[in-house]
Amino acid sequence: MKKYLLCLLFIVTCQANAAADLFWAQETGWQSTPQTATEFNQAPAEALHLMNDARLAQEKEQHVTALSKYKQICKQFPDTIFAPEAYYQTGKIRIAKGQFGDAFKAFDAITKEYPKYPHFNDVLHEKFEIAREIKNEKHIKYLGVISAMKNRQIATNFYEKVLEDAPFSDIAPLALVHISEIAINANEIPKAIAALERLIDEYPHSEYVPDAYLKLGEIYANMIKSPLYDQGATRLAMNCYEDFLILYPNHSRASEAQAKYEALKIKLGESKLLIGDFYFNARNNAKSAIIMYRKVEKLLPGSDVARIAHEKIEYIKAGNLPKKTPVDFLFGRYERPSDEKIVDDLSQKSGDDFDFQSDLIRINSSDNAVPKSFMDPDAIPPDESFLRIGPEKQF
Hints:
Layout: H1 2-17, E1 22-25, E2 29-32, H2 37-42, H3 45-59, H4 63-76, H5 82-96, H6 100-113, H7 120-135, H8 148-165, H9 172-185, H10 189-202, H11 209-222, H12 232-247, H13 254-282, H14 286-299, H15 304-317, H16 326-331, H17 353-357
Antiparallel strand pairs: 1-2
Helix pairs in contact: 3-4, 3-5, 4-5, 5-6, 6-7, 7-8, 8-9, 9-10, 10-11, 11-12, 12-13, 13-14, 14-15
């Protein structure tokens, strides 16, 4: 509700500002429109005299003189119609001199103290462009020459100020795009993810949202190490591409998203295959292994990975045992669990619900506390007779 009230206030303010203005003419100096004539005439004559002198010096590129007089106006006559204009002209001079930090300060004074300034939208765009200049690591004079790292931090802060000033402006979602880019370039991935998620959540109709989904998918995909590691990032990346395909099926990059989604499914299947191998080879747990192999078949029907999983299931059904390891020769083979319970050494706080917590649960257990929603009826075929393996075979 607060954001909607701010939006309404912003719109009303802009409408109110549209009628008020000052304009400059070389021959006559600063003049007012009929709407601001009263306020203009009530300002002290000294303020008008300073404004005219400052603008004349500005046009002659006598910047030191112009800045001095504009500063004097802002300090001595802050409640007059001239003060916000003096700040605005100060900002323009600072930009011309490459002093982007000082320019931003001048524009920021307007957005904080003079929300009815008629060129409020222009000020917002000026602040945005300053942030972009700093983001691009130009030669910036802001308390001296600063490092690229400092530039990125300042740019991020400036974009955040733009968002704070006008969260419903046309440049707000683009500010989040730039914040995410700065974070990615600085390898600050959590900050990049946070900015992109804000863009998606707060500006769902923005033209930048489709690319935000794809960028999030790319970020999560880059976190994936190998099938041997936890696949939480794989699932998150898949979710991003899946959401993109649902929301934007006709987008020009839909085929790209589909291809990346399918590649991630293969990675997830390969991980499940390895989990199944672990249960069979390292834990002598045929039932748990088959659960994982069935997951692979369900996830990737008709694929090479699913074919391998099916062959492993048939191998187990034939009564074969895993090959003995040196440890098995020394201490004996790992004891096979009963059919009623799965020995689950991996399920302790894995963090990946899809791969572990929902996969490695008790099957046919007498423990009624296991939620039914965790069960996967497709994981084990209806006929479990193959689990009652006869004489054990071994290579």
